[in-house]
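Exercise 7b. Backbone tokens:
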């Protein structure tokens, strides 16, 4: 079973509509998918209304856990906590922060703002994750992503090494923007092992940690 908590639709820069994204995930053997389009405070409300409607319909008819979420992207780091709180209050059940990938000019300090924010679930593609921020992520329960996205994945090995020392909880996410980006069981395991995780660590990242995150999501008021 595949768990994927970071994907994009036509609501931002993805190729598939929210409903087709979920349908394609069903066909790929997904147990759960989060729709997490790029947003800031200006467009968060519009995106959330659309993904909430799509996820509600999908869960009614298909065997998949579809989670409405958001990826806070290129915000000034001091604005991240405010944006995450606003998104949570307006229905985001999964909050991802677009981390300091080496292939984009993400504002320095974004990783730190994410791992110190109690409303953030996942720090995506954090690039050269510092030891201090990794320790804060572990302490504050922020999951760290091993990315399936080209470019963002360049530092997966560094992230795995730093995160392991700090005891962070890893997830493997696709960061899908098209059909071909969606994960399969085989691809997800390849990303986990390819960044240097052991078989046991890969099992934890692919199964145990996703289930732990899902339990957190389920306990939140709708």
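Sequence design result:
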């Amino acid at each position: 079973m595949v768990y994927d908590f970071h994907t994009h639709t036509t609501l931002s820069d993805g190729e598939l509509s929210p409903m087709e994204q979920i349908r394609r995930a069903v066909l790929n053997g997904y147990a759960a998918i989060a729709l997490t389009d790029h947003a800031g405070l200006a467009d968060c409300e519009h995106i959330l209304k659309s993904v909430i409607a799509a996820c509600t319909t999908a869960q009614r008819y298909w065997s998949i856990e579809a989670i409405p979420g958001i990826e806070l992207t290129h915000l000034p780091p001091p604005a991240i906590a405010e944006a995450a709180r606003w998104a949570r209050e307006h229905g985001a059940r999964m909050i991802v922060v677009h981390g300091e990938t080496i292939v984009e000019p993400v504002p320095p300090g974004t990783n730190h703002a994410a791992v110190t924010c109690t409303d953030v679930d996942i720090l995506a593609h954090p690039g050269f994750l510092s030891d201090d921020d990794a320790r804060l992520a572990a302490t504050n329960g922020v999951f760290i992503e091993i990315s399936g996205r080209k470019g963002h994945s360049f530092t997966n090995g560094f992230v795995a090494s730093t995160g392991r020392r700090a005891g962070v909880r890893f997830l493997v996410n696709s960061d899908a923007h098209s059909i071909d980006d969606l994960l399969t069981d085989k691809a997800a395991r390849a990303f986990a092992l390819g960044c240097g995780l052991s078989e046991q660590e890969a099992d934890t990242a692919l199964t145990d940690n996703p289930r732990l995150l899902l339990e957190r999501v389920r306990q939140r008021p709708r």
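Instructor comment: The first strand starts at residue 2 and ends at 4. Residues 11 and 46 are 9 Å apart (CA to CA).
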